[in-house]
């Protein structure tokens, strides 16, 4: 109640009223266009938010994130291009429905499921955030160091390329984050005498260079790229029939709950949630006989889990400062750019802002439904724009956006360097998401490590003095050990034609 | 893994980076101020050094796993390279970065966008010119007018 005047003040800012629906609309459009991702878009638009106050900036970015989750279903259903692994299940049922003349029904089911799944996780975020932040408030530097190490290890461990390559990527990211002036003593580290590097490597050029440029360049590098215009299924049908929404309601609830619980665990991306929800729904849904031929509950299961997962990933980000996936890692970077640190301290020092943000996130859930309902038929046409028309504009925006950070060419060179690194990562099968998350967490991890050791006078045992730290280190060791053993067993038993992924879909959505 | 394919082993490269860090980069490019030498606890070199050793160990582990793998498919890209297009897009991107600094944003963007659209897409020449001009104008208005972020001017007298 103390913060009510402050919260009301935030909502009288016209920027918020404009950027709330704008972010959602941009997200839906971006999600619907194959080849564009929410991560890429947030990275490109981040420089635009510097002139905004924090709340409109975050709500624009979160709106894009949420809108893209529904937008991906448009591409999956109408174009047969899922765009993200998480939308693959939507495609499995959505495409047959569209071919049977029920594209609008599939999109309606996706919209309702996405909305309700997202609403579930947003309400959970609203109620759980302050409690979790209070619990997190008793954690000190040693516990935060252990927690961030655990989160980074989980993300590395579930990379499709394997835990060891995930660790390599995470280490490289952590190293990249050390470039610049030392946190404590201010001495130069790995700056090679370049004064621009004293400020470290900027987040946006690294993000855009690592994720946007390789996708674009690889599209052009391939000889077998699709040169034909994408065919869009028509959306002329009436939508869901009477009683269908009631029929899929239990599926939405079950899948949303699963997505929400898994999404709150750092590193468990939407793909796992979606596939699990789809798999469970295949066995229990009323229309399970239709699976593979256009089952509406299949679309509902996938979309509900996907959106609930996305909303739940904001829980560890806001309460603990730990990103759960690549998009929340980008949002963490955005927070840092605006001088804010998510975590328990944010709840203590900026409570009004946090409440306003949570309320705005709730409003954005309703806006996804409203904006999606009003625009999905028209967006279907935009989704058919050729990649060759969009990619040059993206390259220009990437370079201009990087230049705009410092009005010098320095960040443009960082962008190009990150692009080359991204291509090298693809070639060597090193997971870029683990690198980026390591890069974002690097100052936080080192800060907590050094604070612990400074307080203890260099006594390393301070790192594992508390039960909470010990539990997290044990979990880290178990995850690494189990994953390595499974990997070695798989590699030994794999034949000459074994797939690169160990029979599992890509677990961390690098293409989110 | 075929020995010849080792050059594509992430483990080998990671271990090499770790060794280079330990042997050269950390001693030569991370200085330790005198105050740090007399204060118990980590120095500016501690965290990077730990990461370098983790890289070496995990790099060796990854290399061993790659050598144990029977499949050679992991080292081959899943596509055939279109060299001509690759050179065009790389050249245009490099041209953009070089010209951006010398002749300003507006002229560079129009030229390079036209290059992308005419050479790498099915768009015809006249529409490509039009789209290049319109997109450039929109970006100029967005950055310079709305966001008040100055971009290098191609025509300073005209203000863009």
Topology, pairings included?
The complex is a heterodimer of chains A (512) and B (160).
Chain A: H1 4-11, H2 14-32, H3 38-45, H4 54-79, H5 88-99, H6 103-136, H7 141-157, H8 163-176, E1 180-181, E2 188-189, H9 203-221, H10 244-263, H11 270-284, H12 296-312, H13 314-320, H14 326-337, H15 344-349, H16 351-382, H17 387-406, H18 410-428, H19 432-455, H20 467-493
Antiparallel strand pairs in A: 1-2
Chain B: H1 10-29, H2 34-37, H3 46-68, H4 83-103, H5 105-120, H6 125-146
Helix pairs in contact in B: 1-3, 4-5, 5-6
Fill in the keyword field for this structure.
heterodimer, A: 512 residues, mainly alpha, two-stranded antiparallel ribbon, 70% helix, globular, disordered C terminus, B: 160 residues, 2 domains
Task: Tell me what you see in this structure.
- The complex is a heterodimer of chains A (512) and B (160).
- Chain A is built from 20 helices and two strands.
- Chain A is mainly α and 512 residues long.
- Chain A has one domain.
- Chain A has a two-stranded antiparallel ribbon with strand order 1-2.
- In chain A, strand 1 and strand 2 form a beta hairpin.
- Chain B is an all-alpha fold and 160 residues long.
- Chain B folds into two domains: 3-75; 83-146, no CATH class.
- Chain B has six helices and no strands.
- Chain B has helices spanning 10-29, 34-37, 46-68, 83-103, 105-120, 125-146.
- In chain B, helix 1 (10-29) packs antiparallel against helix 3 (46-68) and helix 4 packs antiparallel against helix 5.
- At the A-B interface, helix 8, strand 2, helix 9, helix 17 and helix 18 of A face helix 1, helix 3, helix 4, helix 5 and helix 6 of B.
């Amino acid at each position: 109640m103390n913060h009510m005047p402050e919260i009301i003040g935030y909502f009288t800012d016209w920027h918020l009223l404009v950027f709330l629906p704008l972010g959602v609309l941009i997200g839906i459009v971006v999600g619907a266009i194959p080849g564009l991702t929410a991560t890429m878009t947030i990275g490109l638009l981040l420089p635009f938010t510097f002139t905004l106050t924090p709340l409109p900036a975050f709500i624009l970015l979160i709106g894009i994130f949420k809108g893209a989750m529904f937008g991906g279903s448009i591409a999956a259903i109408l174009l047969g291009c899922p765009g993200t692994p998480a939308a693959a299940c939507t495609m499995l049922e959505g495409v047959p429905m569209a071919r049977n003349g029920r594209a609008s029904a599939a999109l309606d089911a996706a919209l309702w499921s996405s909305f309700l799944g997202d609403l579930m996780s947003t309400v959970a975020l609203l109620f759980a955030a302050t409690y979790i932040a209070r619990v997190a408030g008793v954690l000190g530097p040693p516990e935060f160091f252990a927690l961030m190490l655990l989160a980074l290890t989980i993300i590395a461990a579930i990379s499709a390329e394997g835990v060891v390559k995930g660790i390599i990527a995470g280490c490289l990211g952590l190293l990249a984050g050390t470039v610049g002036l030392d946190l404590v003593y201010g001495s130069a580290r790995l700056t090679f005498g370049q004064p621009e590097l004293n400020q470290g490597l900027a987040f946006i050029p690294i993000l855009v260079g690592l994720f946007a440029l390789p996708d674009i360049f690889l599209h052009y590098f391939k000889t077998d790229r699709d040169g034909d215009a994408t065919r869009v299924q028509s959306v002329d049908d009436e939508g869901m029939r009477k009683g269908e929404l009631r029929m899929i309601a239990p599926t939405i609830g079950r899948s949303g709950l699963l997505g929400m619980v898994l999404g709150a665990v750092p590193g468990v991306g939407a793909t796992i949630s979606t596939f699990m929800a789809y798999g469970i729904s295949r066995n229990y849904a009323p229309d399970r006989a239709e699976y593979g031929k256009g089952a509406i509950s299949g679309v509902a299961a996938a979309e509900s889990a996907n959106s609930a997962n996305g909303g739940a990933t904001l829980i560890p980000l806001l309460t603990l400062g730990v990103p759960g996936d690549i998009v929340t890692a980008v949002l963490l970077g955005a927070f840092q750019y605006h001088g804010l640190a998510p975590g328990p301290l944010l709840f203590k020092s900026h409570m009004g802002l946090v409440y306003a943000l949570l309320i705005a996130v709730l409003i954005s859930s309703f806006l996804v439904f409203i904006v999606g309902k009003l625009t999905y038929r028209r967006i279907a046409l935009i989704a058919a724009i050729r990649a060759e028309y969009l990619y040059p504009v993206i390259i220009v925006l990437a370079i201009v956006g990087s230049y705009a950070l410092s009005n010098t060419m320095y960040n443009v060179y960082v962008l190009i360097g990150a692009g080359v690194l991204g291509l090298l990562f693809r070639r060597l099968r090193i997971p870029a998401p683990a690198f980026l998350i390591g890069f974002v967490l690097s100052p936080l991890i080192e800060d907590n490590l050094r604070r612990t050791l400074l307080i203890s006078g260099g006594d390393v045992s301070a790192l594992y003095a508390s039960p909470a730290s010990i539990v997290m280190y044990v979990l880290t060791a178990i995850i690494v050990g189990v994953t390595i053993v499974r990997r070695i067993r798989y590699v030994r038993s794999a034949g000459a034609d074994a797939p690169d992924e160990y029979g599992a879909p890509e677990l961390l959505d690098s293409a989110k | 893994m075929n020995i010849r394919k080792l050059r594509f082993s992430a483990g080998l490269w990671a271990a090499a980076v770790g060794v280079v860090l330990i042997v050269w980069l950390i001693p030569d490019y991370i200085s330790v101020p005198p105050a740090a030498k007399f204060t118990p606890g980590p120095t500016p070199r501690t965290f990077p050094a730990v990461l370098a050793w983790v890289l070496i160990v995990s790099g060796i582990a990854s290399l061993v796993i790659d050598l144990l793998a029977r499949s050679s498919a992991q080292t081959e890209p899943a596509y055939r390279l279109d060299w001509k297009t690759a050179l065009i897009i790389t050249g245009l991107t490099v041209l953009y970065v070089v010209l951006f600094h010398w002749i300003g944003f507006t002229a560079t963007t129009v030229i390079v966008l036209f290059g992308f659209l005419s050479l790498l897409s099915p768009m015809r020449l006249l529409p490509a010119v039009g789209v290049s001009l319109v997109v450039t104008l929109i970006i100029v208005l967005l950055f310079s007018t709305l966001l008040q972020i100055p971009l290098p001017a191609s025509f300073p007298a005209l203000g863009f």
